[in-house]
Design goal:
This protein is mostly helical. Helix content is about 80%, strand content about 0%. The C terminus is likely disordered.
Length: about 325
């Protein structure tokens, strides 16, 4: 039985390495789909850790790094470790130890953000001026956005009401880039948790016996003072203080957005609402920014109202 398990572990390590190499390389080959596929790189490593232990995780990371270094360049292997390898280790260990989701998700998001910014600096070869590298990346993203708008047939005048002038858009994105990057990483990290919760009962729980706790997001009450302080910094109007306040507001709104989603999921379960209604609500979040702000507001006001502790009338099937 021991030999069979070691053989299975070796096969799964090789398979995980091949899958991750494929999705990581697809990020540079496919314009949009490849970027989303590359974000899945940590998932196979986490599953290996939960199923076979830390040795399988280290071997898989080493194999993947060597494969990327041989197929592309040693720099690609370094970029992979910087962008996804460290976050995969943190995520796997956090889940294995049963840490709170807020700690795991925020930590993974911070590592993804630092790794992503590090990748931007490394690929630009501008070690002395990292802000210039970030600025150039934002300029490239904005140029791609304008090209996409032109391709779908919107003129510059028609797009102006949606995005404002190009100068104002560039200035805002440059100032808010760290906060927006972290917010995106936060959503990505929470997506890892939800995906792994669906996969572990089918694969990783045997024979490792790993089970993940329910996703319950509950931020500390004192964090509301950081939100108030960020708003005050933004309202000062001073360039550096305003930029700091804006990025803090974006980060905190993303954190409270996840808390609002957790409250919404609790209420859906509490009232036994149909699943299709929940799926429709998630789709609306992608098309209605105001609804996303409303969800974040629910998470913020949970500090005072404690929605999950209110006494609601029971549904007929539970009376």
């Amino acid at each position: 039985m021991g030999d069979a398990r070691r053989l299975a572990m070796a096969g799964e390590i090789i398979l995980a390495g091949l899958v991750v190499v494929g999705v990581f390389i697809s990020g540079g080959l496919l314009p949009v789909l490849g970027v989303f596929l590359s974000l899945l790189c940590p998932v196979p490593f986490v599953l290996l850790r939960l199923r076979h232990g830390v040795s399988a995780l280290i071997l898989a990371l080493a194999l993947t790094t060597l494969a990327l270094g041989g197929l592309a360049s040693p720099r690609q292997g370094l970029l992979f470790l910087l962008e996804f390898g460290v976050s995969a280790v943190f995520l796997a260990e956090g889940l294995r130890r049963g840490s709170r989701p807020e700690v795991v998700v925020t930590g993974v998001a911070a590592l993804l953000t630092l790794g992503g910014i590090g990748v931007l600096v490394l690929t630009s070869d501008q070690w002395a001026s990292p802000l210039t590298a970030i600025s150039q990346q934002v300029e490239g993203l904005l140029a791609d956005m304008e090209a996409l708008i032109a391709r779908v047939g919107l003129s510059g005048e028609a797009a102006a009401p949606l995005y404002g002038s190009a100068t104002r858009s560039r200035a805002f994105l440059l100032m808010a880039f760290p906060g927006l990057f972290f917010a995106g990483s936060l959503l990505t990290a929470s997506g890892y948790i939800l995906l792994l919760r669906g996969l572990t009962p089918r694969w990783a729980a045997q024979p490792g016996g790993a089970t993940l706790k329910p996703f319950r997001w509950e931020l500390p009450e004192l964090l509301v003072w950081a939100f108030i302080g960020a708003g005050i910094l933004y309202l000062t109007g001073l360039p550096w203080l305003q930029a700091t306040g804006l990025n803090l507001l974006i980060i905190l709104m993303a954190l409270y957005f996840l808390q609002g989603l957790s409250i919404a999921a609790f209420l859906f379960q509490r009232f036994h609402l149909p699943r299709f209604l929940g799926a429709l609500s998630v789709l609306l979040l992608f098309f209605q920014p105001f609804l996303a702000l409303l969800v974040a507001g629910v998470g913020l006001f949970d500090v005072w109202f404690a929605f999950r502790h209110l006494s609601f009338p029971k549904t007929p099937d539970r009376t």
